[in-house]
Specification:
The complex is a heterodimer.
Chain A (H helix, E strand, L loop, with lengths): L1 H26 L9 H33 L16 H34 L6 E8 L2 E6 L4 E3 L10 E4 L4 E7 L4 E5 L4 E5 L5 E5 L5 E7 L11 E7 L1 H14 L2
Parallel strand pairs in A: 1-5, 4-10
Antiparallel strand pairs in A: 1-2, 2-3, 5-8, 6-7, 6-9, 9-10
Helix pairs in contact in A: 1-2, 1-3, 2-3
Chain B lengths: L9 H5 L4 H30 L13 H37 L8 H19 L18 H4 L4 H28 L12 H32 L13 H35 L6 H15 L14 H13 L1 H13 L10 H18 L1 H5 L1 H7 L3 H31 L5 H27 L15 H33 L13 H4 L27
Helix pairs in contact in B: 2-3, 2-4, 2-17, 3-4, 3-6, 3-7, 3-8, 3-15, 4-6, 6-7, 7-8, 7-9, 8-9, 8-12, 8-15, 9-11, 12-15, 12-16, 15-16, 15-17, 16-17
The chains are: A alpha+beta, B mainly alpha.
Chain lengths: 248, 533
């Protein structure tokens, strides 16, 4: 009997040790105006890391302790594992199975929430068409302005975007599968011939980051990158008008 | 070496239908593939040591050289080493012994399997001879694989040969397990390794034909002008990726399950305990068979698949943690109140516990669609699958060779050298892959040889990882040379040096002769391979 109550204690402790840190981590959920996928991603990533760290530590500590604690002390010694009753055997399968499932569904729900943010493009998003070709990117704006970037000479405007506004990229490829990866904005999506895919992101501060190819595409795959420059909205408008005038 | 004492005759090995010799032929082929693929890994790591050309000649042809190394490393490690090392070598050598059978159900088909596999290895090695070296990665995604100047046919034929070999072997072993168990041996008296192979081979039999079909269509698109994967003519690029991963994710379990099976055997024997909650682990393995076919989309989370299936398969993928969790609890639980002695296989077993946790848990963010949208195709993914599928499974093969070495060769390994090799391997893999986890989260993409667009500190992490790879190389040199030398010069082994209760130790000579058992094996209802009290 004492064993069963021990088990109950153990399972309560397990639930709390997994659940609590995650809930606590969540207490300071997001503030500020409008969805920001990269911020939500960072937040979710931290929660998941805590969750995994707790589960991993419990298992690793138990495993390593047992390896140490149950080493044989004399030769010819046999193990002394308790024989599981039918009930205990079922319990040791069902209880952990439900604990794992609970954590799975919890993570799935959290993941789904952020995923919806990733896929619902805000209505006022600035739209840019992206075309990938072996081995360069081409960006086309609403007003017909086209920009590129040359990774060897590091010249060209690359992708210029306004700070604080959602930017949606509608993407396709002229040859093979590529993937438009914006490490700083925590997002990527593949491009391929015959389909148009999309992703969106929101630059929070002015500055330069990169977009780089994340789907293997041959010889110069490593070099298929472009500068991404976030500028204040007013500057963005001026730049776009200037480019239009220059006939880019 | 194993079945007769009348000296070595090459023809006896070429025409053999003995499952033990076939097992050893698989082992030699898979270790050869491992060695060459391992050299490729060293080249890859050397190149990544600094941004810009390190060992490749220049920025314009560098990709062509580097991509061939990547291709060979991936294809040979998975198709040439992990799968044949586990379901080829280990299953061939051990399964008939563990179930008390004289051989497999179809010994000649078994011989055909192993020689098809060898033909596949030779086909793969032709990579280094042909002028148009394949550079399509082990995944062979079109349209690149159709447009490239690299030799696609070599890749497809390698997959065909090894695929046929796997299908024949699956049928053979499934029939063997179902029909050739010793009289009296019930399903819940089987070794865990037998169960793990049984479930893995069901997966293999169901899914390998899908891969064969997918690559055959690729071959037709490239050389016969069909348009299965060509959107300009009504085909679909994503079709290939779906078919490929419909096979290739389950293939991960074809590797994972027998690897777990090996560690169960080692844990039970070295802790002198029965398997903790045996049935839960068996149902866990069956659960993996059921779920394995519904999770492939997690390889396509950012490929432009419909949103509903990206979310649906996030749930199925996360649920894999339930059967894997049950198997893990059984594995760890087997140590509880055991009497553990530490030989080298148990060192690998202890490391496996850690690898399983790190490799398994880092899979969870990758199972989550939205986290994968950043982490996928980065070196985080790369480190994750190396931990669980690469190192965990490779360690299981090394542990298996060390553990059954006395049975296979009749001789003992040099234990000191084996342990030294283990420490080099274990420290090396950690030094290699932890830096890759970290820069992966920061965005380091896979399959890059130049990364000048990223922050300068990436190069430091790559340098550390390269040092790690060379530590592993020393460990492997110690390990493999130990096998070769001890097979000839090792101390003679007793019949059952680890004190196991499993049939291959208790009922056979060391090494086992033709027909395996001196007399027919019959077991009673009380017998189990883990009956230590």
């Amino acid at each position: 009997m004492r064993k069963t109550s021990m088990k109950r204690v153990v399972s309560v402790v397990a639930v709390l040790s997994i659940g609590l840190p995650v809930l606590l981590a969540h207490a300071g959920a997001q503030q500020g105006g409008g969805p920001d996928p990269a911020a939500s991603w960072n937040h979710l990533w931290r929660d998941v890391l805590i969750d995994l760290f707790v589960i991993g530590s419990v298992f690793l500590a138990a495993g390593l302790y047992w390896v140490y604690r149950y080493r044989a002390t004399r030769s010819g010694q046999l193990g002394d594992a308790p024989k599981l009753t039918k009930m205990a055997a079922v319990a040791f399968a069902v209880i952990p199975a439900f604990l794992f499932m609970a954590d799975d569904f919890y993570l799935a729900a959290k993941g789904w929430t952020v995923w919806n943010e990733y896929r619902n493009v805000p209505r006022d998003a600035v739209e840019v068409k992206v075309t990938g070709s072996m081995w360069s990117w081409m960006f086309e704006y609403d007003n017909g302005v086209v920009t590129t970037f040359d990774p060897d000479s590091k010249t060209g405007d690359g992708l210029v975007v306004p700070v604080g506004k959602a930017v949606v990229l509608r993407m396709t490829s002229t040859d093979v599968v590529h993937s438009f990866f914006l490490p700083e904005y925590r997002v990527k999506e593949d491009l391929m011939p015959g389909r148009v895919t999309y992703l969106w992101f929101k630059p929070k501060a002015a500055g330069e980051t990169i977009a780089t190819c994340a789907e293997y595409c041959g010889n110069r795959h490593s070099f298929m990158w472009a500068k991404v420059k976030a500028v204040p909205p007013a500057e963005f408008e001026t730049w776009l008008a200037d480019m239009k005038r220059k006939g880019a | 070496m194993s079945t007769t004492s009348s000296g070595f005759k090459l023809s006896e090995w070429i025409f053999t239908t003995d499952h033990k010799r076939i097992g050893i032929l698989y082992l030699i082929g898979s270790i050869a593939a491992f060695a060459v693929a391992g050299l490729m890994a060293l080249l890859i790591r050397l190149e990544q040591m600094s941004p810009g050309p390190t060992i490749v000649s220049d920025a314009y042809t560098g990709g062509d050289q580097y991509n061939v190394w990547l291709y060979f490393h991936g294809a040979a490690m998975i198709l040439g080493f992990l799968i044949p090392g586990l379901t080829g070598f280990a299953a061939n050598y051990l399964l008939p012994l563990m179930i008390g059978a004289k051989d497999v159900a179809f010994p000649r088909i078994n011989a055909l399997s192993v020689w098809l596999f060898w033909a596949g290895i030779v086909m793969a090695l032709l990579t280094f001879v042909v002028p148009d070296k394949p550079d399509v990665m082990w995944t062979g995604y079109p349209p690149y694989s159709i447009k490239t100047g690299g030799n696609l046919a070599l890749y497809v034929f390698t997959v065909h040969l090894i695929g046929f070999s796997s299908i024949l072997a699956s049928v053979n072993f499934l029939v063997t397990i179902v029909y050739m168990r010793a009289p009296g041996m019930g399903w819940f008296q089987l070794n865990m390794f037998t169960w793990s192979c049984f479930t893995a081979l069901i997966i293999q039999l169901v899914f390998v034909p899908v891969l064969a079909a997918a690559v055959t269509l690729l071959l037709m698109d490239r050389y016969l002008g069909t348009h299965f994967y060509d959107p300009a003519n009504g085909g679909d690029v994503l079709l290939y990726q779906n078919l490929f991963w419909f096979y290739s994710h389950p293939a991960v379990y074809v590797i994972f399950l027998p690897a777990m099976g090996i560690f169960y055997e080692i844990y039970a024997t070295m802790a002198k305990n029965p398997i903790f909650n045996y049935k839960a682990a068996v149902y866990g393995m069956c659960g993996i068979v059921l779920i394995s076919g519904e999770v492939w989309v997690h390889h396509l989370y950012y490929s432009g698949m419909p949103d509903w299936i990206r979310i649906g398969q996030m749930v199925t993928t996360l649920l894999i943690s339930v059967p894997v969790g049950l198997m893990t609890i059984s594995l760890f639980g087997t140590l509880y109140r055991g009497a553990i002695t530490f030989n080298t296989p148990m060192y690998y077993g202890t490391a496996a516990l850690y690898l399983l946790i790190v490799g398994g848990l880092t899979g969870i963010p990758l199972a989550m669609t939205v986290l994968s949208v950043h982490l996928g195709e980065t070196s985080f993914t790369h480190a994750h699958f190396h931990f669980i599928m690469g190192i965990f499974a490779a360690f299981s093969v090394f542990a298996a060779v060390d553990f059954w070495f006395p049975k296979i060769s009749g001789r003992m390994l040099n234990e000191g050298q084996a342990k030294l090799g283990f420490w080099f391997n274990f420290i090396g893999v950690n030094v290699t892959f932890w830096p890759l986890f970290i820069i992966g989260v920061e965005g380091m993409p896979r399959r890059y040889w130049d990364y000048s667009q990223f922050p300068a500190h990436f190069a430091d992490y790559h340098k550390v990882a390269t040092v790690g790879a060379f530590i592993v190389a020393i460990g492997m040199a110690l390990t493999i040379s130990n096998w070769l030398i001890s097979a000839v010069k090792g101390k003679k082994a007793e019949d059952n040096p680890w004190g196991s209760k499993s049939l291959e130790w208790t009922h056979t000579a060391t090494p086992p002769g033709p027909g395996n058992f001196a007399e027919d094996v019959v077991v009673d209802a009380a017998w189990t391979p883990y009956n230590y009290r």
